[in-house]
Design goal:
The protein is mostly helical. It has one domain (about 5-75). The chain has four helices and no strands. The model has no long low-confidence stretch (mean pLDDT about 85).
Length: about 80
């Protein structure tokens, strides 16, 4: 999502301030961090044999294929 898109207007149709834009960006980063942490934890449990990939994928609300791809992405970063 571009900065221009984030700055267009809020839900009430008012112009968006830079503070609001930065809050959105920060919140998006926090959410991505939470998801990454969940993936790392579930991957660790899978590697220890305490959880199956199918169980982990279900916990994340993903298909097994998407979960496997996300596991690879987390391992890369």
């Amino acid at each position: 999502m571009s900065l221009a898109h984030l700055m267009r207007s809020n839900k009430k149709g008012k112009p968006v301030t830079m503070c609001e834009v930065l809050d959105r960006i920060e919140n998006r980063g926090i959410e991505k961090g939470k998801i990454k942490g969940q993936l790392e934890l579930l991957t660790s449990l899978i590697n220890k044999g305490l959880l199956t990939i199918q169980q982990a994928a279900k916990e994340m609300g993903m298909t097994v294929a998407k979960f496997k791809a996300a596991m690879k992405e987390v391992a890369i970063n």
